[in-house]
Specification:
With about 325 residues, this protein is mainly α. The chain has two domains: about 50-110 and about 165-315, no CATH class; about 110-155, no CATH class. The protein has twelve helices and no strands. It has helices at about 20-30, 35-75, 80-110, 110-130, 140-155, 160-165, 165-185, 190-200, 210-220, 240-260, 270-285, 290-315. The protein is elongated, with a radius of gyration of 30 Å.
Amino acid sequence: MRPSTRLPLSSLAVAPCARIPVYRRVQALPLPHISCRKASSSAALVDTIPGIAQNVDKVTHMLRIPMEYMHDTLHIPWLWVIPLSALAIRAILYYPITLSTRKALQRRLAISPLINAHKSWYLKDARNHARHDPSVGMMKRYRTAMRALRKDLQHRFDCGLGKTLLRPILQLPVFLTMSWNIREMLGIPGGTLKSLLYTMLGQELTEGMDAARQAALLFEPTMMEEGLPWAVDLTIADPTGTLSYAVSAIMMSQTLLSMRRVPGGSGSVLTRFLLVLSLAIGPLMVNAPAGLLYYWACSSGMALITNVILDWRYPLLRFTPCKRPLTNPLPKK
């Protein structure tokens, strides 16, 4: 038998404050300042709401300056300004983040053999502990050990989930901001998402002026004359419907490329949703302004080209067990 390690009660030192009644000890405690801190943090949050709205306008204006410079100073028509802007954003902002994410995915796949090699050992260890201590579930102990191992390896090789999700998290705000810029240049103030954002932040979208005056200040009349050959006026819908179905085809190509990159990814719920969304974009966006669809097609096309280049330069290799036969084949007669 194991000797008892519990100490007798007489050996425990009794603190002097233990002899004081409970209500006196409670009265002697300092008053908490929780309510004051909450009030101050709430007041600070209310004070920062207008600053958030102003920062949204600043970022929108900063992304619009290069487009206006190319058009007004370099005299480049909007037919080329929009794809050049999409290319610049993809090369300057997206490509470094996409490259970092791709390398993190490569490291994540490279450590998968280490994780798979520990599975049988941890499962055997969990079974042995289950024989001696049945109160602890075998599978619970196994999952806890595997989760700790996976977390430790991903942290050591800098390929955690946050690293791999960095690109889609940062890509959406920039795309929405550029879409707001294009909408304002087309004479469509703000948009549903921007109006919803300002409403949530408690700000007026027009900042003291009516929407018609704001749209007139931001509208670019040259958008009506410097469009595509089949859609010269970018402020109205494409009469042929080519742009909406081009966006649909590019999104479908991106989804199919990701399915080929990830084996077994065709059955996931997200992949099926993206396929349905890609098919629905064409008929749903037929009446959208041609300028907005043109930027969307350029941005999606640049993303598709970037993914193809990364798949060629930094492929995602799957590490699988060796398929070498265990016995040598019989010699041919």
